[in-house]
Structures are given as structure tokens and as C-alpha cells.
Amino acid sequence: MADQYDMDYERVAGLKITGVPLYLWEENNFLIIANRYGNVINPFDGISNRRVCSMQKFGVLTSARRWINDEIIVNSNGHEFKVSVVEYTDDWSPFKPAPFDKVDDSEEDDDNMETISKTWMEEELEEPEEGEI
Questions:
Q1: What SS3 state is found at 32?
Q2: Per the record, which residues fall in region Disordered (predicted)?
Q3: What residue numbers bound the domain in which 14 lies?
Q4: How do strand 69-76 and strand 39-42 relate by DSSP bridges?
Q5: What is the rounded distance in angstroms from the CA atom of residue 87 to the CA atom of residue 42?
Q6: Cys staple from 83: which of 19, 31, 37, 125, with CB 3.0 to 4.6 Å?
């Protein structure tokens, strides 16, 4: 891993950590993992208040030239856990969405209602006579 780092080169990387046991979900534990890849630039907001604890995302300033995709071993009380650290990208823009970028949920619902109202509904079926299916 050391050969892919160059101190003259830095970039921003979004990383996602998965596989951390729930009882280890503390900011200090995530910082220990994150600092292996660079300096944390996007803090861990509200770790203790999260409802979904399947993963934690954060940003680092790293000198790694390749995408980060690692599996590391975390030791706790004599137990070993495999933890995945994967670089990811999210669509991001410094600009607010324009009106044509937004999807209005009420328009979608209206379209669905029109479709349902145009659907052919079969009238009550007559009871089959004896021998009919």
C-alpha cells in the first residue's frame, strides 16, 4: 500500500466503511480507520443518532493515486472483524437544482391516477353454468 502514496500528490476521496460491529460504532473508532487513508475532511456527523448502521461515509484528503478498495481486520476484545473500506462517488454540484431538474411527486401521483382511471375494469362476472370453467 505504501508504494501508491506520494506526498506531493493529494486528492479528495469519498470513502465508505462497512462491517463495523454495532457496539464499535463510535467516532474515535471510525477516525482510527479513516486516518489510515488520509486526513479526514468531512466529519462523522451524528454517529450515535443514526438509525441505519450498515455503513459510514466520510471524506479524506489522500495521496493514494488509485481507487481505494480495501478489506482490513479490526480487533476488539480478542475478536477479529473484516471491515470493508471502499471509495465511492456521489453526484455533487455546488449549484442549487434548477426547476427543470426537480421531480414533483404530486405530478407523478396525478399521472398514476389518470392511468388507473383509464384502466378497463371488467364488470361483475356471471356465475359459470354447470360444466363451465
A1: helix
A2: 91-133
A3: 2-88
A4: unpaired
A5: 14
A6: 19
pLDDT tens track for 2-50: 566 555 899 989 999 999 998 898 888 989 999 999 999 877 666 767 7
Task: Return the DSSP state at 5.
Answer: B
Map grid coordinates 362476472 to a residue.
125
Q: Does the residue 107 lie in any domain?
A: no
Q: Computed from CA positions of residues 126, 130, 132, 133, in that sequence, does the dihedral angle turn out positive or negative?
A: positive
| 111: in domain | no
- End-to-end alpha carbon distance in the chain: 71
Cα Rg for the chain, rounded, in angstroms? 26
Q: What grid cell was written down for 13?
A: 476521496
| Residue type (1 letter), 11 | R
pLDDT in tens, 92-120: 666 666 666 555 655 555 555 555 555 55
**Residue 15: which of 64, 87, 92, 90 has the closest Cα?**
87
- Note whether residue 40 is domain-resident: yes
